[in-house]
Amino acid sequence: MVQDEPNGEVVATNGGSTREKKPNVFSRIALFIRQVFAELRKVVTPTRQELLKYTGVVLGFVVVMMAIVYGLDVLFVWITSYVFGVPGA
């Protein structure tokens, strides 16, 4: 069942009855597309300053994670070299 919301949005509901006829495939596709456009209208694009800040945070996080993984890799190589007695490592 298709129901209008108070904010003007059309949504598909389960209606409560057990054997209610579903809308045909084309009306379901049209409903989906209307809902996609309604969600896209809610998207707020970041300003240039916000975008640069978010990019810096992501790059900083990636660098920190790379350092942690590198440190653990060096530690595990040292431990395995010590345990198994690999010369020169």
Automatic annotation (TrEMBL):
The way it spans or sits in the membrane comes to: Single-pass membrane protein
Which is one Gene Ontology cellular component term of this protein? plasma membrane
For this UniProt record, give its keywords in alphabetical order, as a comma-separated list.
Cell membrane, Membrane, Protein transport, Translocation, Transmembrane, Transmembrane helix, Transport
Instruction: Give GO terms for biological process.
Output: intracellular protein transmembrane transport; protein secretion; protein targeting; protein transport by the Sec complex
For this protein, the parts annotated as crossing the membrane are: 51-79
- One GO molecular-function annotation for this sequence? protein transmembrane transporter activity
Q: Region (Disordered): which ranges?
A: 1-21
The record's listing under InterPro entries reads: SecE_bac, SecE_sf, Translocase_SecE/Sec61-g
Which Pfam families does this chain map to?
Answer: SecE
Q: Where in the cell is it found?
A: Cell membrane; Membrane
Domain of life (superkingdom): Bacteria
Q: What does this protein do?
A: Essential subunit of the Sec protein translocation channel SecYEG. Clamps together the 2 halves of SecY. May contact the channel plug during translocation.
Q: How does it assemble?
A: Component of the Sec protein translocase complex. Heterotrimer consisting of SecY, SecE and SecG subunits. The heterotrimers can form oligomers, although 1 heterotrimer is thought to be able to translocate proteins. Interacts with the ribosome. Interacts with SecDF, and other proteins may be involved. Interacts with SecA.
Q: Which family does it belong to?
A: Belongs to the SecE/SEC61-gamma family.
Protein name (database record): Protein translocase subunit SecE
Record the organism: Microbacterium hominis
